[in-house]
Amino acid sequence: MRTDADRTGDDxxxxxxxxxxxxxxxxxxxxxxxxxxxTVLEIxxxxxxxxxxxxxxxxxxxxxxLRLTVLEGSVRFVISGRARPGGDDVAAxxxxxxxxxxxxxxxRTVPLxxxxxxxxxxxxxxxxxxxxxxxxx
Length: 137
Description:
Elements: E1 2-8, E2 11-19, E3 24-26, E4 40-44, E5 46-52, E6 57-61, E7 66-72, E8 74-83, E9 89-96, E10 99-100, E11 103-104, E12 108-115, E13 118-121, H1 124-129
Antiparallel strand pairs: 1-2, 1-13, 2-8, 3-7, 3-10, 4-9, 5-8, 6-7, 9-12, 10-11
């Protein structure tokens, strides 16, 4: 996970990029089916927050004959808002359910804290490999 933040006065724009391992997908913010778990990004440290979620791709899941919209590969979220007085960073929580082929793992919650200027890096892979070590390689 990488963040790149740009602060102009009180206005803030943060780009959060999540690189999912090959073969892993997550559901978009609005899943194709009501029983699927959406990807949700919660932001703390900004007011007037808006999150642009990435556009999903349509994928044929051969194991069930389904066509779903999913997120895979390099996934980019754009966050905009206004910095709180005296705030130099923003905290966020990314909630998602990783799936590999026909198997979905338990939902994950990854906290992160990003400076309001510059860049930072976090590992979403740590949240995935806790129960599926093969993803680390």
